């Protein structure tokens, strides 16, 4: 993941973001989802910086073939109660 300092960032030295990984079935129903925080430090002398993140997930097949499932990763708004689930649903429906 790469963060880039925009004009409104001022002297900010880092950005905190969230992303989610979701597994959907052939009908696009969400079978599992999980949010992950990331912190990207952007040095003062740089416009952008990046990190890599490693996660391991158990994907529930639910009797389906692995080829019938989709794994999706997207940036998400910061979690705020039930709104996260709405954000996940909207993001997945845009594909």
Tell me what you see in this structure.
The protein is mainly β. It has one domain (2-93). 12% of the residues lie in helices and 38% in strands. Strands 3-2-5 form a 3-stranded antiparallel beta sheet. A two-stranded antiparallel sheet has the order 1-4. A hairpin with a 5-residue loop joins strand 2 (14-24) and strand 3 (30-41). The protein is elongated.
Topology:
Blueprint: E1 2-4, E2 14-24, E3 30-41, E4 48-50, E5 70-76, H1 83-93
Antiparallel strand pairs: 1-4, 2-3, 2-5
Strand content: 35-45%
H-E string:
EEEEEH
**Intertermini distance:** 20 Å
Level of helix content? 10-25%
Spatial arrangement of strands, main beta sheet: 3-2-5
Total count of helical runs of at least 4 residues = 1
The radius of gyration is 16 Å
**Can you tell me the number of structural domains?**
1
Counting DSSP E segments of at least 2 residues, the number of strands comes to: 5
The average pLDDT value, as a whole number, equals 77
The 3D shape can be described as elongated
Low-confidence stretches: 81-95
Structural class from helices and strands? Answer: mainly beta
Major beta-sheet overview: 3 strands, antiparallel
Short account of what is shown:
This protein has 95 residues and is mainly beta.
Properties at a glance:
about 40% strand; elongated
């Amino acid at each position: 993941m790469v963060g880039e300092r925009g004009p409104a960032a001022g002297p900010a030295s880092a950005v905190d973001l969230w992303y989610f990984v979701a597994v959907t079935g052939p009908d696009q129903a969400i079978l599992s989802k999980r949010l992950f925080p990331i912190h990207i430090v952007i040095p003062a002398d740089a416009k952008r910086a990046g990190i890599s993140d490693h996660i391991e997930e158990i994907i529930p097949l639910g009797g389906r073939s692995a080829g019938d499932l989709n794994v999706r990763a997207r940036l998400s708004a910061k979690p705020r109660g039930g709104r996260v689930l709405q954000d996940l649903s909207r993001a997945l429906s845009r594909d």
